[in-house]
Amino acid sequence: MAKEVKSLAKSATKSLKASETKGLKTSETKKITQSKTRAKKIKHSYKVKDAENALLLKLKDGDVVIEMFPEDAPNHVARIKELVRAGFYNGLKFHRVIDGFMAQTGCPYGNGTGGSGKKLKAEFNRNHHKRGTVSMARSMFPDSADSQFFICFNDCDWLDGQYTVWGEVTSGMEHVDAIKKGKGANGEVDKPDEIISMTVIADI
């Protein structure tokens, strides 16, 4: 009897067709929903002060948590969250990376010439540019910040009071350190690393 069942099982599996979802894009397949309990555990695992004002930045080497400063740069934080929730940063390149200084991203063209199309009035504050600081990039004009930002590798106190600091890396700085560096004084990167995704932790 056992042999018959074993033989039947083999013959039955031979007739099964390959999954109809094979080869489809992720967006075309049904997503598995996670329970509220599991989602809550995932949020708490990041250990942030305020999930609504914290970001999960996914890089090739691992996850980076950025806690934002809405009390010091309210308009910048609000705009960053708006762009993150729209998926603006997903796939953007770290086009300018200078070893020992900073890694810059947020340009939709990947060369530092573009933005989202909405300039922000400067919100310079007393936060220092130190290792892990997240600050807005801008042109020579104070109120020209848009979507581009940079993360400091080391302390850069000469930038204090001249660029809007809106957050800091509180976890995963070693993954920021691993971002591919550029060559030359301007830090232009050949085949640069990308942001895999950015998410507001409250939305996870």
Q: Tell me the β content.
A: 15-25%
Order of helices and strands: HHEEHEEEEEHE
Give the C-level CATH assignment: Mainly Beta
Instruction: Please mark out the parts with pLDDT under 50 across 5 or more consecutive residues, or reply none.
Output: 1-32
Can you tell me the CATH architecture?
Beta Barrel
Give the helices and strands, then pairings.
Layout: H1 2-14, H2 36-45, E1 54-59, E2 62-68, H3 74-85, E3 96-98, E4 102-105, E5 133-136, E6 149-152, E7 165-171, H4 173-177, E8 197-200
Antiparallel strand pairs: 1-2, 1-8, 2-7, 3-4, 4-6, 5-6, 5-7
How would you describe this protein?
The chain has 204 residues and is an alpha+beta fold. The chain has a single domain (38-203), classed as Cyclophilin-like (Cyclophilin). It contains four helices and eight strands, in the order ααββαβββββαβ. It has helices spanning 2-14, 36-45, 74-85, 173-177, and strands spanning 54-59, 62-68, 96-98, 102-105, 133-136, 149-152, 165-171, 197-200. Strands 3-4-6-5-7-2-1-8 form an eight-stranded antiparallel sheet. The chain is globular and about 50 Å long. The termini are far apart.
